[in-house]
Design the sequence.
């Protein structure tokens, strides 16, 4: 953003120093042309993103039949329900755990991929990115089949070691574990690619200097790699936190919120109430709870990014 | 975020950890060992899809070794590829993805050009707005959008709910913001001298875009196209909300709602369907991996 604006100022300065009359004509045409070029984008965002966002707030204040204004009635109703607080707790556990593991695994794998000769990196990177390329709905089906209690692979393999059949999706604890595992599987490649790109941009001289000063590998990671990658770590975590928090596909297909609502997230619960249960206002209220949490996450991490950027 | 190059060769420098060569050899061995472990983890579900898709229902229910196919058969593939219903899903997905990609590029390329190069009132705000829009998840908007399109149907009599083409309006809300965002990045990385030269030679803004920017930023354009396609193809929540009749469904929703019938899971067919549904993005990825990665590191996607 900053970069774009800066370059525009520079070029205008250059042009201003050059031909004055052509510049004025160009500017005259430019503002109209620019407006026309961005008009479809503005319309799309205004009608199909901003308007629905405010419409959701309006919907959340209506009663189930959408005939009467009830103010905060839906929210009051939600606050009194145990399921709602369970969903809040589960969404937080799910998002935080999954993002931490995605970031850790991505960081570790990126280091290993960075270690090997660059000719071979392409092949490995290609294999490791596959989870992210397959549509999540399709790959989750494969996981559903892997988790199948009676016929399937995991319990068969564990049975060979004498570990009894685990009800992967039938028990609350295991179901939460499975949902997080699939999310980590899907999201870790994204972190891996981002970190690998960031690792390549760390200058070699820094490691050489650290090695001369007698730093061990842990000190090199802690004092060289991590500070150099701080921005990219913050940005990736922001993206992932938002997306993981709002996740729908994986939980919906794997458990549909069960057993006994123990894996419901905001998105799946809002779908269950709003679309399947036809209580659109209540569903809208549930999904609105994602907005402040996402906004806070975005704010904190973006602030962090700009702060670090100024230091550097 | 503005310097985006496609990295075909990898880094040029050799990575040297430690000073002794024996250390390096061991570090390399451990790296390969762990990379192999992670690769197995990554490829487990797609490989398992393939294994199961080659089995007959009899073999699956016999509960033999799930990791091995004793009697490979293509019957699942033949059954699905000759079923009109399944071909209908495929066709719906294909036409929606292609049209959405076209709409996305038509909206986002001119907009990105205007935002990257033609500074006008509110352009910086709008660029930030595009970025923020890109952060809004689909699960926040599906309920109001559903109600909106239902109301449009009530007021105008044009029924849009439960028609596949309603998705042509919805998907651009996901694809346009990020396509615009990465195209702003690519356009901003083009040297100013190029468009200055074009303007001096008398090119209009439109000609500068089509004759200079689009050819120069072609890698970015391809990355954005691939992403728009992948997102449209993989979208699950919106079609699940907006379409219900079996002839209106797209691939992911169709496979999940029609092949899973109650408690009877025909896993052979489900895995075949899932593999065929995953095939188009995988094939594009196999051929255009470098563009995928360039777009990914340009902040093009979420994961």
Sequence:
């Amino acid at each position: 953003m900053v970069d774009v604006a800066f370059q525009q100022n520079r070029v205008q300065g250059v042009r201003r120093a050059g031909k004055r009359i052509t510049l004025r004509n160009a500017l005259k045409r430019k503002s109209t042309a620019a407006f026309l070029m961005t008009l479809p984008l503005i319309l799309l965002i205004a009608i199909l993103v901003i308007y629905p966002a405010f419409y959701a707030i309006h919907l959340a204040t209506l009663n189930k039949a959408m005939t009467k204004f009830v103010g905060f009635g839906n929210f009051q109703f939600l606050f009194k329900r145990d399921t709602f607080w369970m969903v809040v707790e589960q969404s937080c556990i799910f998002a935080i755990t999954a993002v931490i593991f995605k970031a850790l695994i991505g960081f570790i794998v990126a280091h290993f991929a960075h270690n090997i000769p660059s000719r071979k990196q392409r092949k490995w990177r290609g294999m490791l990115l596959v989870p992210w390329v397959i549509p999540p709905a399709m790959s989750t089906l494969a996981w559903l089949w892997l988790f199948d209690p009676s016929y399937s692979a995991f319990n068969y393999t564990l049975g060979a070691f004498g570990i009894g059949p685990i009800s992967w999706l039938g028990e609350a604890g295991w179901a939460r574990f499975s949902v997080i595992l699939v999310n980590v599987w899907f999201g870790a490649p994204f972190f891996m690619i981002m970190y690998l790109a960031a690792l390549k941009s760390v200058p070699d001289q820094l490691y050489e200097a650290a090695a001369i000063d007698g730093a061990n590998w842990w000190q090199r990671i802690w004092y060289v790699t991590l500070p150099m990658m701080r921005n990219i770590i913050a940005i990736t975590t922001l993206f992932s936190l938002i997306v993981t928090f709002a996740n729908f596909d994986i939980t919906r297909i794997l458990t549909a919120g069960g057993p006994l609502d123990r894996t419901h997230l905001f998105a799946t619960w809002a779908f269950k109430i709003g679309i399947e249960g036809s209580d659109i206002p209540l569903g809208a209220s549930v999904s609105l709870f994602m907005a402040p949490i996402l906004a806070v996450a975005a704010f904190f991490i973006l602030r962090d990014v700009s702060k670090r950027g100024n230091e550097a | 975020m503005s310097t985006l190059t496609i990295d075909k060769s990898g880094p040029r420098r050799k990575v040297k950890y430690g000073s002794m060569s024996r250390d390096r050899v061991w570090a390399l061995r451990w790296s390969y060992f762990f990379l192999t472990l992670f690769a197995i983890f990554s490829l487990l579900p797609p490989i398992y899809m393939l294994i199961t898709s080659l089995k007959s229902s009899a073999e699956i229910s016999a509960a033999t070794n799930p990791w091995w196919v004793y009697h490979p058969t293509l019957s699942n593939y033949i059954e699905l590829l000759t079923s009109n219903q399944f071909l209908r899903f495929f066709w719906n997905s294909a036409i929606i993805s292609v049209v959405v990609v076209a709409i996305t590029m038509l909206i986002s390329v001119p907009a990105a050009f205007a935002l990257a190069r033609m500074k006008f009132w509110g352009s910086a705000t709008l660029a930030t707005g595009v970025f923020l829009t890109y952060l809004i998840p689909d699960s926040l908007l599906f309920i109001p959008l559903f109600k909106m399109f239902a109301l449009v149907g009530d007021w105008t009599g044009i029924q849009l709910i439960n028609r596949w083409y309603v998705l042509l309006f919805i998907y651009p809300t996901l694809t346009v913001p990020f396509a615009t965002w990465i195209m702003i990045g690519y356009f901003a990385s083009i040297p100013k001298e190029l468009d200055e030269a074009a303007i001096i030679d008398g090119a209009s803004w439109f000609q500068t875009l089509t004759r200079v920017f689009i050819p120069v930023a072609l890698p970015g354009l391809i990355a954005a196209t691939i992403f728009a396609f992948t997102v449209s193809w993989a979208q699950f929540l919106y079609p699940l909300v907006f379409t219900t009749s079996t002839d209106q469904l797209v691939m992911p929703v169709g496979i999940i709602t029609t092949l899973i019938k109650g408690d009877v899971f025909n896993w052979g067919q489900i895995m075949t369907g899932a593999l065929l549904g995953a095939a188009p993005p995988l094939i594009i990825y196999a051929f255009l991996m470098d563009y995928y990665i360039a777009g990914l590191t340009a902040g093009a996607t979420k994961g």
Q: What stands out?
A: Residues 75-311 of chain A form a domain with the MetI-like fold fold (CATH 1.10.3720.10). Chain A has two domains: 1-60, 75-311.
